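Figure-free illustration: sequence to structure, shown twice.
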Amino acid sequence: MDVSINDFVINVATANGTGSQSSNLILLNALFEMGVPVSGKNLFPSNISGLPTWFIIRASDRGYQAPGDKTDIQVLMNPDTWYKDIEKVESGSIIIFNENVKLPVDRDDCLVFGLPMTKLARSISPKMAKMIANMYYVGVIQHLVGIDQSALETAVNRQFKGKASAVEVNLRAIDEGRKIAQEGIEWQCPHAVEGREKEEGTFLIEGNEATALGSIYGGINMLSWYPITPSSSLAEGIIHWLPELRGTEDGKSTCAVVQAEDELAAAGMVVGAGWAGGRGMTCTSGPGISLMSEFIGLAYFAEVPGVIWDVNRVGPSTGLPTRTQQGDLNLLREASHGDTEHIVLIPGTVEECFEFGWRAFDYAERFQTLVFGFSDLDLGMNNWVCRGFDYPDEQIDRGKVVRSAEQMAAIENYGRYRDIDGDGIPYRTLPGSGLDPILYRGTGHDEDGIYSEDPEVYRKLMMRLKTKLFNARKVLPAPVIREEPEEDVGIIYMGSMENTIQEIDDMIEETGLKVSQCRVRALPLHPDVEKFIDSHNKVVVLEINRDGQLYGVLRKELPINLVPKITSVAFSDGMPPRARIYSDLILDALVEVES
């Protein structure tokens, strides 16, 4: 039998609240410790306990991080999904199951192994049997694919933070599971792991934690938040790391943290912090952005800096709170009523989550506006391999702030909303500086901040705001472009699709077609996006939503002669993107364009 090396998918089917997260992370971290390229996807329900959950681990020497198109090793722990999980398993796959569930596994075309995990766990600890039972399938998988013992022990110690009793109990269960598998499994496993040289300095981290760290390094002064999945761990990350990374000044915290009574209040606090000269931020998801709309419009029109991170979940309404999507792009770009347009930063990796975490504050103050960070549940709440962060090596950009009477005197005809330099950005003063005026108006106002309903004054103001955002294009993160020479097909995508795009590209190349890639990292669109489209005959816009929202943005912002070159491929089912689905959709779209 041919054995595939470092190329398999494990799917653990269990129930929320049974402690399986620990065992799954141990498997993930053990493979990572061996230097095996690995990724993990936690598909969890929107309740505290009881409903089905799945954890998908993919090992891939080619670095593929999508969930995979088939399951090679299926672990069955949950009676509620037992039959459906078995039905989805392809012929030739491995099934590991808990015999204490007492349900049949009628698959003669699969390699099947069961053991009484719950009963065995009770012999170790009757009170903790439900949780310890999961460690037995860790032991079975260790035997089947050949996970190194030292890597496994390192992963267990990390998971239980070196707590001796917990480490001992769980290692005992893993060891028993491995020995039972050694004695009971007579067939050869078609999958195996081989250790690779682990890249120095790499580690596993969630996107939300990376964003939290970046926000701290960006000088956050005020965090307001209201809990909502999947953004809560971003706020919790800031709270966790603040004491260690920022400490205190004169015994006082350098960042205020406030759990607000609702999302609207959290947004109001961001506006208040920005008006006062602080760096304020909140984090939420789509439903929260909807509720923040009133203050978002105020910040845009009054030109108050602030940062809001949206970790996208599936909508509309409550939708699927624990699934992933890129469906909030339009919501962020034009949040609030009237003619509004916002800066949106779109990270595609955990490294960029960190970088955009600190850059967001600089952009907000430089352009005197709200800046949105746009992540999603897949990137935000799953573990990704990180190769280290690029820490800010430049001074904080506070923008056009007048701090002294001498500076004020040097500005000819100062007005809070007067465009002195022709770039659309006025100068501002801060409370406590002794300089007047400290004006921020949400109603119609002239260049001096005086209330006005004059039509020409209003139109001039709105055009200046548009100019300010237009000029931001060249300053914001440029797209990541990977060009294939002499190829006329391009793919434009954004965000966490970055972690699937290479596998999509490889699948398309199997047909003999080569494509170039352009990953959009910010709105308004950088000029290089337009150049990319102009240099290709056909361009597919790939995204994780139903309506092709990035495609719609491109149609709005591109010159009319370039619009016919682009076609939309949008797909969303709540799952992280699977390469086969999107590659097939791209090929179908290209055939349709040709016809």
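We now fold a second protein in the same way, so the two outputs can be compared directly.
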Amino acid sequence: MNTRRERVPESLLNLAIVLILAGPIWAESRTTDFKDGGSVALIEKAYAEGRLSLGDKVFHELQAAMAPQDLPTSLRANVPALIKCGSPYVDAAISNWKILSTDQQTLAAQYLARPSLDSVYIPPSQAFAIHYSLAGNDAVPPEDLNMNNLPDYVERIGEYVDSVYFFYHGILGYLPHPRDNDSLYDIYLLKIGAYGVTVPETPADSAWDDYSSYIQIHCTFANFPPNDDPEGDVIGAQKVTCAHEYYHATQMAYNTHMEAWWRESAAVYFEEVSFPEVNDNYGYLPSFFNYPDTFLTSTGYHMYGSFIWPEFLAAKYGLNMLRTITEEERYYLVLPAIDSALAPLDETVKRIFPEFTVWNYFTGTRAGGESYDSAIYYPLAPLDRTLVAPFGAVAPVYPPDGLATNYIVAYPESGPNGLLKINFDGSNTVEWGFSYVTFKQGVTDIHAGCTVDGQGRTSCGIYDIALYDSVLFVPAVISQWLNNNQYAFSTVINPFGDADGNGSLNILDVSYIINYLYHFGAAPKYNIYMGDANCNGVINILDVSYIINYLYRSGPTPCLYRP
């Protein structure tokens, strides 16, 4: 993986704009403190330095998520560990069970077993049993404002999980969670090291990989990161955790072992769909937007910020597209499942990914046009390069990984005008997409495509480049694999009248235009108006005469057609 650069903070002006527009108020610095200082970061560091084996790493990360009080002192963070969801660590422990020591297996089995708590609440849906304690380490807050002998904290968990239950199954039509030995789905409120965790238990009775499960949710949410919920941070954390973890339980009706990056990104997106007032998910966006050159399929904090991908799919094709993808995951891995869901629309991941990368540029102070509804509140993706066009061959500063991109902005230089010919040559070990966006006096024009061949090469052109204020180039790797993919990228000016696109104006262009007009030849390359030498808006024999007059009789330079 390439070494990542330090990001330049947003300017105070941009921050003021966001505040003026009454945008989300999550504090990125505080969230970053949790990320950088949490126990998982200490465990990862110890593993990278060779102080922990893989088995130790897997076991201690499970502890960090489910039993932080049991962590060795050296791996306990100075600040509370922020673990969005403990499910990936549960899966890692189960998958790597054989490399855990006997003592670690014994403890891990205890962590994964259902706890015993002293009280239970069945909310109005009659679909859940919420287990909680009134005393001890796992005690819930005792506040009972409505004096019904039920802690408000517990009652709210019931309200929120009922809400997502009816939403996922009654409105969106997802399959119900696989049942265990009774009709109630069990949720335990505990002082864990994560917002929540969904634990798979036993295979269900379908032909696919469905499992019964249970959920653990933090019993207080004290000292967790802030969010935008108008009722307070704790209530906001309760809402999004119910949405997130019960979405995992719903996913397990289809495929318990789906890829972690998609499972988590989709669950985070459904936090936003279920409780849009909370915006807890906004705290993870920098982990995605700051690294556009990183695999879409990366795990870690990146996968939580990657909720922007299911958001894009839902914005383009409707929320039910995500259920269709989940249904396809019974039979396919994630990306083939998305392709299968898109097939009736004659679309594929590789066709739509370039558009996704363009959407991700138009956020924050760049927001406008076709993009996300909340794009103005999303971070800005950094530029890989800023250039003056035309420019000679350049390579990426941060080569993109699979399903990743670069953003390159160029400003046309003053001087000779014509068509800006784009020459792109990407590594032929991956597949590429290439888009560009022109900006002219506040008007944005998106061009999804220069067609890239099987060798990673494309050549296209921007007619009358001098008219534009700037151009954004977006090369993207549209296949899943390989990191640090290289490319060579350059531009040149082709003069007006250069119909054959070879970079110069000569008698061959006369022949080319004649062949086009009278012998069913190909149209002028890169833009049809490159054959309109007299700029009257029509290509005909007068353009042939105009070029001959210029070449051999000191006639005027071919002028340009400005629509």
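Summary for the second example: Residues 1-34 have pLDDT under 50 and may be disordered.
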